[in-house]
Amino acid sequence: MLNFLLRRLAAGVVTLFVALFIMYILVDAAIDPLADLVESTAPNKEQLIAQRTAELNLDTNVVIRFFWWIGDVVTGDLGEAWRSGQDVSGLLTRAIGSTLELVAAATVLSLLVGVTVGIVSALRQYSAFDYVIIFLSFLLYSLPSFWVAVLLKQWGAIGFNDFLRDPVIGWGVVVALSLVVGLLWSLAVGGSARRRVQVFAIAAAANVALFAYIQLTGWWDRPQIGPVLLALLGAGTAFAVAGVFAGLHNRRALYTGLTVVVLGVVLYFPMQVVFDSIDESHLLIAGLALLTVGVGYLVGRLFGGPDWRTSARTGAAVALVMGTLIFIDQVMQVWGPYFQALSGRPIPTFGDRTPNLGGNYWVQVLDSYTHLVLPTATLVLIAFASYTRYSRSSMLEVLNQDYIRTARAKGLPERLVVVRHGFRNALIPLATIVPIDVITLLGGAVITENVFARPGMGQLFVRSLMDAEQAPVMAYLIVVATLAIIANIVADIVYAAIDPRIRLDA
After folding, report:
1. What pLDDT score does 262 carry?
2. Which of 114, 300, 303, 438 is at 20 to 30 A from 482, Cα to Cα?
3. What is the DSSP code (8-state) at residue 357?
4. Short-list 216, 242, 211, 213, CA closest to 229
5. Please, what is the average pLDDT of the chain?
6. Helix, strand, or coil here: 80?
């Protein structure tokens, strides 16, 4: 492993240097810092041109300027944006922070939803559910992102903000939505006609109950999860995680998940005190998240048994969900003052922060999340289509392999065949695609950031290029090129971790 990393890092450094050299020359040829002065009618135009030429060293050979620039970069100096006089390091830090928020949310959601739906679609090949997913995937994949973003602005922000003035959903709409949800669940689960009817009835009834709870409790005005809903959602998660990854017959794994749910509900109340004392500390939240996962893993380990690792993984997964729900509940508790501060229109259509908002840490977190809703939804809808297609085709290929037929012939349960033998191998193609996609997004979702006016990496690159500022453009390219090299190395490592036939030091 160490030899592999050293070889790849050495090759990466050489590749980075050559790429930056080529890009520096191309950017220098593409921009003209003197364009505005050349077209100027000022009487001292020649003096201004000479002054800017000397200031930006434009009379020096471009190759020499590149080595001056790369020398400054090695010492940690990324230069200055000459028009605004701002330090490039500060501009880059601000842009990376905004883009990371967007990329993290969009990547996690699109992977979870896309891979899950794609695998279910593969397992229900040529069924009505499969055809529906294929249609939606191709439809979303063909839609331009700017058009999706504009529609979300209209209906996801303006329409929803108008709805919040009088948040009442007609019972006819509730019943219609519940029937659609029940139908989708019955198609996804499949099985005999009796089983489909049962799933349809349960899903539709659960959806009606959920909307009834929202309507009758005034949830739109005071959104929260609370201990009761936390217990119900946690129990459902425990059964789902244990059922998929261990099987409900594995009582140790199921009891581990339910024990973690009980601990989460018990700790819900003292955690309110802990959260109230938090003041702008993302690191503390991250530490609490790691502690939560560790506790869940420990609970599974304490239940023991010959397959304790399955119980431990189940406990860790359920603990992560419980911790996330408690965190979301805490953020929801400041909805009232935030709603009032934004004059009853809490879903914004531009930017990544509300200027001069004020408030405590949780208000700032809620403000950040509401600004993420629309651009994240745009990226998720587009990425969902591609991840669904990748995971479906990969799973279908895996299910036709000899070792899958052998596992079934040995009498293994279908759940075990799919989860332990099929799912892991179906992830191998995604291990190559996902890191590259993440780096592409880190480079800036240029169109999405432009529509929603998010000051991210894409906006920084476009604005700097239009202003003929070479230093910010090259700083952007350093980040993107470095991350692209790292992404390829990570993809190889993940590939080897998933597929034991691959040896990095071979």
Report:
1. 94
2. 114
3. -
4. 213
5. 86
6. strand
Sign of dihedral through CA atoms 311, 316, 319, 324? negative
Q: Tell whether 13 is covered by a domain.
A: yes
Q: At what angle are helices 428-442 and 88-123 packed, to 10 degrees?
A: 150
Task: Supply the pLDDT for residue 104.
Answer: 83
387 and 110 in contact (C-beta within 8 Å)?
yes
pLDDT tens digits for 198-232?
Answer: 999 999 999 999 888 888 888 888 888 888 889 99
**Burial of residue 164, with CB atoms counted within 10 A of its CB: 0-12 exposed, 13-18 middle, 19 or more buried:** middle
Please state the domain count of the chain: 1
Residue among 119, 125, 188, 110 at smallest CA distance from 391: 119
* Beta carbons within 8 Å of 438's beta carbon, 6+ residues apart: 103, 107, 487
Predicted pLDDT at 504: 64
| 25 in a structural domain | yes
Residue segments in the chain with a per-residue pLDDT below the cut of 70: 1, 279-280, 442-444, 499-506
pLDDT of residue 357: 84
Per-residue pLDDT at 30: 87
- Residue 222 CA to residue 445 CA, distance in Å, equals 34
**Coil, strand, or helix at residue 33?**
coil
Both tokens of 361, joined, read: 């840490």
pLDDT of residue 231: 92
Range 355-364, long-range pairs (CB < 8 A, 24+ positions)? 359/334, 360/279, 360/334, 361/278, 361/279, 361/280, 361/281, 362/275, 362/330, 362/331, 362/333, 362/334, 363/334, 363/337, 363/338, 364/280
Query: Are the beta carbons of 390 and 431 closer than 8 angstroms?
Result: no
Task: Pull the structure tokens for residue 153.
Answer: 């602005």
pTM of the complete model: 0.84
What is the CB neighbour count within 10 angstroms for residue 343?
Answer: 8
Amino acid identity of residue 416, one-letter, is L
For residues 31 and 465, the answer to whether their CB atoms sit within 8 Å is yes
pLDDT value of residue 319: 94
In a domain, residue 479? The reply is: yes
Alpha-carbon span 309 to 215, nearest angstrom: 42
Q: What pLDDT score was predicted for residue 444?
A: 56
**What's the domain range around 71?**
2-90+448-498
State how far Cα 148 lies from the chain centre. Answer: 18
Q: Is residue 506 part of a domain?
A: no
Contact 173, 181 (CB under 8 A): no
- Taking only the tens place, the pLDDT of each residue in 229-280 is 899 999 999 998 888 888 878 889 999 999 999 999 999 988 888 887 776 6
Q: What is the DSSP string of 262-321?
A: HHHHHHHHHHHHHHHT--S-HHHHHHHHHHHHHHHHHHHHHH--TTHHHHHHHHHHHHHH
